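pasting input
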Amino acid sequence: MRRKIVAGNWKMNTTVAEGVALASELAANFNQVPADVNLVVAPPFVHLTSVAEAIKGTKIALSAQNCADKAKGAYTGEVAAGMLAGIGCQFVILGHSERRQYYGETSATLVEKIALALENGLQPIYCVGEMKDERLAGKHFDVVKAQIEEVLFGLTAEQMGHIVIAYEPVWAIGTGLTASNEQAQEIHAFIRKLLADKFGAKVAEDCTILYGGSCKPSNAKELFAQPDIDGGLIGGASLKAEDFLAIAQSY
Ligand code: PEP
């Protein structure tokens, strides 16, 4: 069944103490979150164990923001999917545009990361989305199609059932610009059609597809009302418990 998910990507923000305070505030106010909305937080790696403790006993799920494309070994500075699963992560964000842009993450690497995440029982939140010039040139469908085909089309239908997709137009991330409801719905429906053609109607219908890009309390309600938008991947607005909770209440 398709799930409603509101996930907070904290990126490289907050000290451990600030992160624990934020997570504790979310935990204390979790009763404000509708029963059918799954709340996920993705703090920096070094916060994960402390945040796991702060949200223990609640239904808030823990996500990492990345994982290695190798299972273990001499890869200085990397963190393996198995390590993340071992400390209680249920999700991992993969293919975020900041990783693609600033750290040269490619489809080939992402295929490996997704395979390792799945092997270790993590649910990837796989991010796709076009750059501003690609949107202006009318290439957004082609870009998103390639990102989906190159990374997800080698999966089985069973594996695809564990993937969450986040459509995040790069021009909307952290810019204050948001895709219009129509722009977002159009791409979400397009993604679902791609999945239906490849994996079948049931997998496509059950896949949770999130919108990300300057989603905030003032625009979440109308975005989430679109038939193919199943929640949000939230950056800036996830750093304030009040805003993040307000977004979660926008269904
Ligand atoms: C993100 O980076 O995943 C994101 C959606 O950021 P923001 O909400 O700040 O645009």
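fyi The mean pLDDT is 97.
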